[in-house]
Structure of Aminodeoxychorismate lyase:
Amino acid sequence: MMAGEGVPFDDRGLAYGDGLFETVLVRDGVATLWEAHMARLARGCERLGIAMPSRSALDALPARAGKGLGVLKLTLTRGSGGRGYRLPESPAPRLRWRVTPFAPSPERWWQGVRVRHCRLALGIQPYLAGLKHLNRLENVMARAEWQDPDIAEGLLCDSEGRLVEATSMNLFWRREGRLETPGLTRCGVAGTLRDSLCRRFGIQEVDAAPSVLEGAEAVWLGNAVQGLWPVQRLDDAQGQVVMRWRLGRLHRELQAEAHALLGYPCHAGDAGEQDEDDKA
């Protein structure tokens, strides 16, 4: 399902990436982490100076998804107008939405994923850090670095060498008994699942180089649509293995909490999994 006509040629979101978006998991017409999505959209609107659509209009959208599992995508642009980069004097924001059926990847939940480091580095721009704005060319080009279907994601650093995120997911790890995630004060997207887990578990936001993962007991990628993927192999940008992890209890504990927030199943554990996580 889709709402609205085609985007005009002079729409500022199309021309300049002047806008925001949200991707929301919807189950039988009920949105997961809806208040967190609305809070992030509101922060973005305030930062960019775009009028927030009415909550009544937004709150009515998840029910339009109908039965089953789907993803509701909201795109909000500043609308049309202005000369060049100059803002229009009386902007009329343009909201578009679409619902698409969705099926997660359970094999990635249970078997874990292989990821790689990306060559591309994210630019540092604190003013936009944390927002889910429409300027995503860096992520597009990073994702273009590999075509191997066995590689699920790529890890991104900023231009000063600090870990930030994956191309479309947030990054978490457990080191010396502490749960940590990259700080996002310079760039990156503050995911709604990330924020929920950070509040619930006191996950520490840290500035760290990629080498921090070599001392991690467990590593995960996650977002509010796909859930939490445990990482079982990390490659460098040339495809050489950097680290391997055996999946075990530590991976499943955080995954269970994340999946409870999203309504996804939890893993009861396999006979082949270790009680303690060891790096292999």
